[in-house]
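STRUCTURE:
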């Protein structure tokens, strides 16, 4: 694999080495996340990504535990199913003073409000007295996330001299952005000794244990900015706060339970990952894209994740829409790739972003977030009937629609295009945003402006959805114009993009309006949006599911017979769960329900081979071999929000679930369940003001739906 996983691309992750241990443990809450090895340590190994991060800066780059100057032996290590607690079981190496397997150590870690809290418990199961010297070596390099991703800097800020009191150690760094960042360690017992070196600060705590006695050491590690020093609650108070939040989160969503325990594990892990990745904003909850590289708000990722989970958790969509409306561009800024009405691509708050060393402080270089913003708004209204919110949102929707016509269509041909950023931003601005992702059949790069296949579908769906909202608001002339625009776009799209020799739509049109006659998964998004003409659907479905595209676990981003196919490439042959879920929903939309089930089954099989049933951002697109799982992609984010959301979109596709909150009504359109699932329960599903429990059962040719509980007025129908 090339050292840079996206060829000639300056903004992506250097893969010159692989992870030392793929089983990295992750905690996240709000603006902070932490990556540990299996022993609960933070070490500069592998890709060097381990650490405690806050707002794009690594506050803790080293945290290593030793016992009597030796690293303890690992017994077990796991993050809880709800992703809230990381527990490690250890035992010290045997010495003349400590009998083998006589002392048990347990490290329990939680992350809360910008602080890592840890409790280390030591239990002496031996018959004699034991003295343990727990050594903690800590360091903070205050590296920006883009430095860790491989971006070099000409200058860095100034490290500050560590300071210590009896129960506290403080590390610090004064950045070039004039911000002072401190790592504050507080411990509940005074260390026996402390010394500093270039390797870090080493603290030693003495625990003296009688037979069958337990003692604990607790510490809190806070990420402080400037002179802020928040009160740090004790360990038990943090646990109670986490449990209270979990109870609130569980009350917001429906729950799923099937007779297939492995599916339940996949769905539960995905739900837990989504809960972990969601951060609270002044506008509501927002799913941050992924850990470690994208733990921030991304427009496209947030919108797609919200669409994936809308049927279960509409509150998330409201938060995404509110946040993106509040950050919508109001002016032209060429360095940010911003024009009025455009929806945010990415925001960062680290030192390099603040200084402009990377262009992503508030960056707008995505071509698809703006139409998807409108698509989500209409879908949210269908799901909830929340007219008041749509009325509040309407000015932002109008600005987005104006952007599509005024700024999105660069050359006035009726298609929405982008040009490569001229000021250090992204070259490709669709979801496949690596520099080599758009090209012609001979492998030559496509010159801009680029009109992507899937983006035209998003624009079509946006205009149709906006027309329905405008009708609802009494804006009939505006609605009629939007409907007419959508109808015309659909016809022009088919004429310009359909490639009979491919049995698919072209990947894109280049600046000369030449189609990129390349078979890619992008064409499947044309089914999801509804822009594909009905007469094209059967052939497109067959093309997407043949052996060149479908490898047994999923649909590749690029078919195996294309010039630039590489199963290890980020966008030119890999498999992305969210991409497959979108395509599956498109297949079901055109009546190809069995094909949607096939896609879901492939990803289910992939999840079975992943640790904790967690689907990563992507995996390699090698052909499936008997008895083997998918090949990992070395620097994929895991967890990733839209990978976690994929299972819920796949299930909705297979069940043909449709909502209308105005009625209110829930419809199952030719539902199917895979052969590995016989029954499915959906509990606490809210439709309008009503709440439903549903029991589904698979039969030879269809699925039966039984309403086991109904509170409130709602119609349930099944089309078979």
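SEQUENCE:
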């Amino acid at each position: 694999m090339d050292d840079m996983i996206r060829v000639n691309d300056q903004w992506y992750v250097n893969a010159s080495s692989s992870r030392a241990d793929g089983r990295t443990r992750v905690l996240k809450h709000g603006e902070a996340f932490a990556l540990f090895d299996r022993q609960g340590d933070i070490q500069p190994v592998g890709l060097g990504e381990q650490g405690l991060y806050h707002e794009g800066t690594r506050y803790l780059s080293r945290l290593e535990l030793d016992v009597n100057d030796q690293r303890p032996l690992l017994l077990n290590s796991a993050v809880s199913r709800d992703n809230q607690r990381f527990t490690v079981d250890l035992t010290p190496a045997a010495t003349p003073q400590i009998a083998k397997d006589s002392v048990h150590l347990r490290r329990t870690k939680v992350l809360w409000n910008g602080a890592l809290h840890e409790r280390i418990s030591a239990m002496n199961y031996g018959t004699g007295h034991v003295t343990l010297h727990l050594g903690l070596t800590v360091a903070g390099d205050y590296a920006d996330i883009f430095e860790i991703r491989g971006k070099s800097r000409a200058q860095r800020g100034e490290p500050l001299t560590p300071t210590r009191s009896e129960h506290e150690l403080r590390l610090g760094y004064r950045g070039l952005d004039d911000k002072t960042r401190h790592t504050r360690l507080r411990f509940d017992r005074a260390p026996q000794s402390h010394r500093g070196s270039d390797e870090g600060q080493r603290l030693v705590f003495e625990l003296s244990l009688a037979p069958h006695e337990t003692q604990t050491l607790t510490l809190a590690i806070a990420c402080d900015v400037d002179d802020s020093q928040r009160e740090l609650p004790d360990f038990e108070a943090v646990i109670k706060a986490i449990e209270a939040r979990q109870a609130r989160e569980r009350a917001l969503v429906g729950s799923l339970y099937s007779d297939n325990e492995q599916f339940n594990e996949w769905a539960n892990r995905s739900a837990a990952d989504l809960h972990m990745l969601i951060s609270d904003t002044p506008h509501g909850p927002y799913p941050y894209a992924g850990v470690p590289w994208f733990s921030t708000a991304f427009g496209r990722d947030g919108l797609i994740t919200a669409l994936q989970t809308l049927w279960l958790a509409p509150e998330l969509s409201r938060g995404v829409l509110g946040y993106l409306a509040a950050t919508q561009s109001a002016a032209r800024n060429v360095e940010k790739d911003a024009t009025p009405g455009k929806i945010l691509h990415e925001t960062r708050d680290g030192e390099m972003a603040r200084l402009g060393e990377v262009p992503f402080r508030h960056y707008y270089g995505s071509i698809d977030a703006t139409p998807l913003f409108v698509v989500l708004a209409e879908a949210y209204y269908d799901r909830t009937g929340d007219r008041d919110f749509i009325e509040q949102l309407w000015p932002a929707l109008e600005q987005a629609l104006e952007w599509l016509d005024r700024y999105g269509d660069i050359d006035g041909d009726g298609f929405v295009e982008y040009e490569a950023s001229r000021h250090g931003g992204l070259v490709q601005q669709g979801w496949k945003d690596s520099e080599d992702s758009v090209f012609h059949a001979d492998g030559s790069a496509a010159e801009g402006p680029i009109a992507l296949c899937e983006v035209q579908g998003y624009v079509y769906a946006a205009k149709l959805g906006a027309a329905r909202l405008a009708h609802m608001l009494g804006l009939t002339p505006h609605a009629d114009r939007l409907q007419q625009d959508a109808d015309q776009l659909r016809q022009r799209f088919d004429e310009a993009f359909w490639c009979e020799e491919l049995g698919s739509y072209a990947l894109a049109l280049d600046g000369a309006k030449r189609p990129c006659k390349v078979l890619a998964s992008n064409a499947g998004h044309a089914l999801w949006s509804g822009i594909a003409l009905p007469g094209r659907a059967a052939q497109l479905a067959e093309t997407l599911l043949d052996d060149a595209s479908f490898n047994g676990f999923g649909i590749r981003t690029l078919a195996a017979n294309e010039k630039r196919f590489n199963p290890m490439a980020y966008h030119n042959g890999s498999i992305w769960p969210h991409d497959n879920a979108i395509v599956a929903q498109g297949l079901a939309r055109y009546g190809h329900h069995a094909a949607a089930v096939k896609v879901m089954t492939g990803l289910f099989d992939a999840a079975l081979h992943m640790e904790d049933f967690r689907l990563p951002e992507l995996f390699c697109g090698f052909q499936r071999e008997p008895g083997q799982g998918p090949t990992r992609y070395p620097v994929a984010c895991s967890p990733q929000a839209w990978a976690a959301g994929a299972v819920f979109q796949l299930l909705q596709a297979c069940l043909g679930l449709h909502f209308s909150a105005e009625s209110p009504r829930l419809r199952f359109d030719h539902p199917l369940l895979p052969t590995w699932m016989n029954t499915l329960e959906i509990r606490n599903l809210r439709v309008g003001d009503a709440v439903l429990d549903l029991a589904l059962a698979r039969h030879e040719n269809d699925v039966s739906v039984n309403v086991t509980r109904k509170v409130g007025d709602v119609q349930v129908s099944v089309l078979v």
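REMARK: The longest strand covers residues 214-225.
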